[in-house]
Amino acid sequence: MNPSVTVERASEALALRAWVDGRNVFVELHDGRIVGFPAARFLRLRDASEEDLKKVRIELGGAALRWEEIDEDITVR
């Protein structure tokens, strides 16, 4: 195992939970932090319906957020 990969992976932010409130996306990270951003920051999220925006899923073991209906992926890192 490459030690530098292990250190990098350990410090990488991973999502435990994601949700949408209004037009803002929030993510709870594995270290307890909660971060948020306006959907308008990303073109596909900005143009998404509120219903589609709320269909966020956590993918890749917490490394990405996915919106299937609007074909958008955002890395958590």
Helices and strands: which structural class?
A: alpha+beta
First-residue to last-residue Cα separation: 22 Å
Sheet with the most strands: spatial strand order: 1-2-3
- The rounded Rg comes to 14 Å
How do the SSEs run, as a string of H and E? HEEEHHEEE
The biggest sheet amounts to:
3 strands, antiparallel
Anisotropy-based shape: globular
What share of residues are in beta strands? 35-45%
Oligomer: single chain
Q: Which spans of ≥5 residues are poorly predicted at pLDDT below 50?
A: 1-8
Count the E strands. 6
Count of runs of 4 or more consecutive helical residues: 3
Mean pLDDT: 89
Q: Can you describe this structure?
A:
With 77 residues, the protein is an alpha+beta fold. It contains 3 helices and 6 strands; from the N terminus they run αβββααβββ. The chain has helices at 3-11, 43-47, 50-53; strands spanning 15-21, 24-29, 34-38, 57-59, 64-67, 72-75. The strands form 2 sheets. It has a 3-stranded antiparallel β-sheet with strand order 1-2-3, with no helix packed on it. β2 and β3 form a beta hairpin. The longest helix is centred in the first third of the chain and has 9 residues, at 3-11.
